[in-house]
Design goal:
With about 375 residues, the protein is α/β, with parallel strands linked by helices. The protein contains 12 helices and 16 strands.
């Protein structure tokens, strides 16, 4: 007989939300994770009194009041507002693209002047394509130029995007960038969502609250004893890689990975902002995160992390899926198998092969729990 109602593979956000809801409903759950800690990629670790985001910056944002209140039931969230800065060579620009950005680029002061400049450059890009006999953008470079013009593209989009994807812009499909948000206000708030912040005390404590009352085993790999784990529960929630679950039957789905280089510095303030993007291609990292600024820290030292995009291979941590046409076609084959499963629920970025933000993961986990009747 099964010992557990649910085996939950992965102690990240999806698994923790589902486990919490199942436990509330009186279900007996076992959560396992191959890592040595709970939290998945939202894991934070205290260093020099600073909550360090070990797997990249995670800023919670949503316009869904239900999700916001749900998350706040596990931790108090501060008033952090994501306002990244972009550094191109020795120039600094505000993100997202807004009037502060346009003033730094061109010296314009009014929305009318900024619109005129952007439209002028967009028209130039379209004319160049027509002269070359091209009617529709064939790649990311051409698509972006027709959306925001040459200056913004070359300084703030091209190099950063090429580093992220590991390919040159004219080798990337146009559909990757359908739109680039442009704001004609002096507002540096990156997200449009109504609610935004960082949990006080870090994400690890928040996930710990979700998992209270649930058995958790770390350093446990589902695939090391698959038959045993499958037999121990009536139902399985799987948040790992979908293709790995099926033994790469149709081939490997592609992911992008990340490498992190973290330093403790003997200064109280390194860059003055939590996130600074480095947009020129020649600098190998995409951004530097200064963790203390997420929680308005006043510690004597600071901790910074340089984030390097990397090609994924087996054994590496997959961070986000490559949702191009080739991989989406392959994913559809795996999804057909997943849809036929009666015992397994797939969730999260890896289980669904989708680039979800945190609030979307929470929504999906709550939906999955509701479908289970709790």
């Amino acid at each position: 007989m099964s010992k557990y109602d649910y085996l939950i593979v992965g102690a990240g956000l999806f698994g923790a939300v589902f486990a919490h809801e199942a436990h509330k409903a009186g279900k007996k759950c076992l959560v396992i994770d191959r890592r040595s800690h709970i939290g998945g990629n939202v894991y934070t670790e205290n260093t020099e009194g600073i909550n360090v985001h070990k797997y990249g910056a995670h800023i919670f944002h949503t316009s869904n009041r239900k999700v916001w209140e749900y998350m706040n039931s596990f931790a108090d969230f501060n008033r952090y507002t994501n306002s990244p800065v972009a550094r191109y060579k020795d120039e600094l620009y505000n993100l997202p693209f807004n009037m502060n950005t346009f003033h730094a680029l061109w010296g314009v002061r009014t929305p009318e002047e900024a619109r005129a400049k952007i439209e002028e450059q967009k028209a130039e890009a379209v004319e160049e394509m027509r002269s070359a006999g091209v009617s529709e953008p064939r790649n990311l470079r051409e698509q972006a130029l027709t959306l925001i013009g040459r200056d913004i593209y070359e300084k703030l989009v091209e190099g950063y995007t090429e580093k992220q994807w590991g390919r040159r812009a004219d080798e990337l499909p146009a559909f990757i960038i359908r739109r680039l948000p442009v704001r004609f206000t002096y507002d540096n708030n990156y997200f449009n969502d109504k609610y935004q912040g960082i949990p006080e005390g870090g994400y690890t404590a928040l996930i710990g609250k979700m998992l209270e009352g649930t058995e958790v085993r770390l350093n446990e790999d589902f695939f090391n004893d698959r038959s045993g784990y499958e037999a121990c529960a009536d139902r399985i929630v799987f948040t790992g890689m979908l293709d790995e679950f099926y033994g790469y039957r149709f081939g490997e789905l592609e992911y992008r990975s990340l490498k992190f280089e973290t330093e403790v510095l003997d200064t109280d303030n390194f860059q003055g902002n939590a996130v600074v993007n480095y947009t020129e291609y020649e600098i190998p990292y995409t951004r530097i995160i200064e963790h203390k600024h997420f929680e308005f820290g006043t510690q004597e030292k600071t901790v910074i992390t340089r984030e390097y995009p990397a090609k994924w291979k087996k054994g590496d941590e997959p961070y986000y899926p490559m949702n191009d046409k080739k991989n989406n076609r392959l994913f559809e084959k795996y999804r057909e198998l997943a849809d036929s499963e009666e015992k397994v629920i797939f969730g999260g970025r890896l289980g669904e092969y989708r680039y979800y933000d945190m609030h979307q993961v929470v929504e999906k986990a709550l939906d999955a729990a509701k479908k289970e009747g709790f």
